[in-house]
């Protein structure tokens, strides 16, 4: 069994798997629900495996005291996970458990983490049914991700306070996949507009298949993700020119995406110093079925054992992983 500590700005809906739907809660910090999901049956050979056995410890605005004490007492590094497009609530929780398990299975002690997931109200629709089109479902999810920026900022604020209770040398990692990066950029802007704090929160930020505009780090006046480097010791960006979702996103948004070929001007060391950024091209990674399921090339960060091993080494602070531009395999 895997414990997934989670926060969500989804409204409860008993008719949906897991009891949460795709409608959004109010706009106050206390509207965000915190709880613990026990996930059973995760199988690393089956990406869709697992089931939510129970959910408990619910509290509004922060984890319940007993739950927070449990997180602190684990003594493990923390992995903050933000899911992407087309994730219903149960999908998001099961994928969080899957990520926790493959990192643990890597054998790298630093990658054996306690996972805290933020699940925003994606509808979970990957294949559209008439009269809807995939682009319509994509736009609907993108709108919900954008509206979730404030709630995500509340959650990150909680994480920032939580890390002050952690034991010395406990690390905090952030993994944002796909459209979760779109929510993240809004949260980062809110953070600096309201908190004004540039203290390091994350030892490593991992942006995987990021569905965010490719010049996000070059925006002036703290726009989009331009201030994120102030909150992280290092940022690792994984991208692929075979990512099917990046083609959809580029068509809908009429802009190149960060997860397609990395950030704009990626070879400019003044913009992306090797000590601060790893920009990793995964286009040629071929150790998984790229067409089953249909979004497989968008899920390479957890489906490819090559990419998984690289991320695990990253969390374990493997000195062999150099910064700057790189390529897998």
Provide a brief overview of the structure.
Helices cover 30% and strands 22% of the residues.
- Unreliable residue runs: 128-132
Helix and strand sequence: EEEEEHEHEHHEHEEHHEHHE
User: What fraction strand?
Assistant: 15-25%
CATH topology-level name = Rossmann fold
Assigned CATH class: Alpha Beta
**Count of DSSP-assigned helices:** 9
Through-space gap between termini: 32 Å
Structural class: alpha/beta
Shape: globular
Helix content: 25-40%
**CATH architecture grouping:** 3-Layer(aba) Sandwich
In the CATH hierarchy, what is the superfamily? Alpha/Beta hydrolase fold, catalytic domain
**Biggest beta sheet attributes:** 10 strands, mixed
Give the strand order, joined by hyphens, for the main sheet. 5-4-1-7-6-8-9-10-11-12
Average pLDDT score:
94
Radius of gyration, CA atoms, in whole angstroms: 18 Å
Please characterize this protein's 3D structure.
This protein has 329 residues and is an alpha/beta fold. The chain has a single domain, classed as 3-Layer(aba) Sandwich (Rossmann fold), CATH 3.40.50. It has 9 helices and 12 strands. The protein has helices at 65-73, 89-105, 134-147, 149-163, 180-194, 244-253, 258-261, 300-303, 305-315, and strands at residues 2-8, 10-12, 20-24, 33-40, 51-60, 77-82, 113-119, 172-177, 204-208, 235-239, 277-281, 324-327. The strands form 2 sheets. Strands 5-4-1-7-6-8-9-10-11-12 form a 10-stranded mixed beta sheet, with helices on both faces. A hairpin with a 7-residue loop joins strand 2 and strand 3 (20-24). Helix 3 packs parallel to helix 5 (180-194) and helix 4 (149-163) packs across helix 5 (180-194). The chain starts with a strand and ends with a strand. Residues 128-132 have low confidence and may be disordered.
């Amino acid at each position: 069994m895997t414990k997934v500590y989670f926060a969500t700005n989804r409204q409860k809906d008993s008719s949906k798997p897991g009891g949460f739907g795709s409608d959004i809660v109010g706009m106050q910090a206390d509207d965000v629900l915190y709880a613990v999901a026990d996930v059973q049956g995760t199988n690393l050979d089956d990406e869709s495996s697992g089931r939510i056995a129970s959910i408990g410890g619910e509290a509004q605005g922060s984890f319940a005291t007993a739950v927070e004490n449990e997180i602190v007492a684990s003594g493990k590094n923390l992995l903050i996970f933000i899911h992407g497009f087309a994730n219903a609530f149960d999908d998001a929780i099961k994928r969080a458990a899957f990520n926790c398990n493959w990192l643990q299975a890597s054998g790298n002690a630093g990658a054996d983490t306690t996972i805290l997931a933020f699940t925003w109200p994606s509808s979970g629709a990957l294949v559209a049914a008439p009269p809807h089109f995939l682009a319509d479902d994509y736009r609907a999810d993108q709108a919900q991700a954008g509206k979730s920026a404030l709630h995500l900022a509340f959650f990150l604020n909680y994480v920032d306070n939580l890390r002050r209770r952690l034991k010395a040398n406990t690390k905090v990692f952030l993994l944002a996949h796909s459209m979760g990066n779109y929510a993240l950029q809004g949260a980062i802007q809110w953070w600096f507009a309201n908190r004004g704090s540039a203290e390091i929160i994350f030892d490593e930020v991992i942006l995987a298949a990021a569905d965010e505009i490719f010049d996000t780090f070059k925006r002036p006046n703290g726009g989009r993700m331009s201030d994120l480097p102030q909150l992280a010791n290092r940022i690792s960006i994984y991208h692929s020119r075979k990512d099917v979702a990046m083609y959809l996103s580029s068509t809908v948004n009429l802009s190149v995406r960060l997860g397609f070929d990395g950030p704009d001007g990626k070879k400019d060391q003044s913009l992306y110093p090797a000590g601060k950024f790893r920009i990793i091209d995964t286009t040629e990674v071929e150790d998984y079925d790229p067409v089953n399921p249909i979004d497989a090339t968008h899920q390479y960060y957890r489906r490819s054992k090559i990419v998984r091993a690289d991320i695990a080494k990253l969390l374990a602070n493997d000195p062999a992983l150099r910064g700057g531009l790189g390529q897998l395999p």
